[in-house]
Amino acid sequence: MVIAISGIALAGVGIVWHQQAQQENEKELLYIGEQYRKAILSYYENSPTGVQQFPKTLKDLLTDERMPDKKIHHIRKLYADPISYGKPWELVRQGDQITGVYSSSKTSPIKKNGFPASYESFSEATSYQDWKFIANQQQTNPEQKLLQQTIPKQ
User: Fold this and answer.
1) Fewer C-beta neighbours within 10 Å, C or N terminus of the chain?
2) Does residue 43 contact residue 64 with C-beta atoms inside 8 Å?
């Protein structure tokens, strides 16, 4: 009898622990995805004169060598996907250029609301594959845009 009750209690603890771990991984996915989105946007915005380009590989974000006089680091390191446990990131592409990343996991997210405005569509996601972190010019930091508008060019 005691063994049966202990087994049921341990099963309940295991379920709670699994959900907590998944929630932590979701937080990490949101953080890392945002780091990639910002890095891809930075790469695009810091293109040398001429046509703006997105990176062709994620490694391009580590050290941008498109300008001969300086190297830019758009991201500190290449982060692993915290949800798909070692599988590579899926890439959103525009031709041969990367515009975003997303997880390959088909698991359903626990988080369904409380997303920042730029990720409101995540609330409708049926799997983590629907959480796409895509860089586009409309998602630049509003404070940075305000600074750019108020600082006179010299």
Assistant:
1) C
2) yes
Single-letter code of the amino acid located at 47: S
What is the rounded average pLDDT of the residues 100-129? 95
Which strands form 133-134's sheet, in the order they lie side by side? 90-94, 97-102, 133-134
Q: Which two tokens stand for residue 46?
A: 């810091």
| Encoded tokens for 100 | 């975003």
Residue pair 123/116 in contact (Cβ under 8 Å)? The answer is no
What is the percent of the chain with per-residue pLDDT over 70, rounded to a whole number?
A: 77
Query: What are the residue ranges spanned by the domains of the chain?
Result: 2-146
- Which helix (H) or strand (E) segment holds residue 134: the answer is strand 133-134
Is beta strand 133-134 parallel, antiparallel or unpaired with respect to 90-94? unpaired
- Rounded Cα–Cα distance for residues 83 and 144 (Å): 31
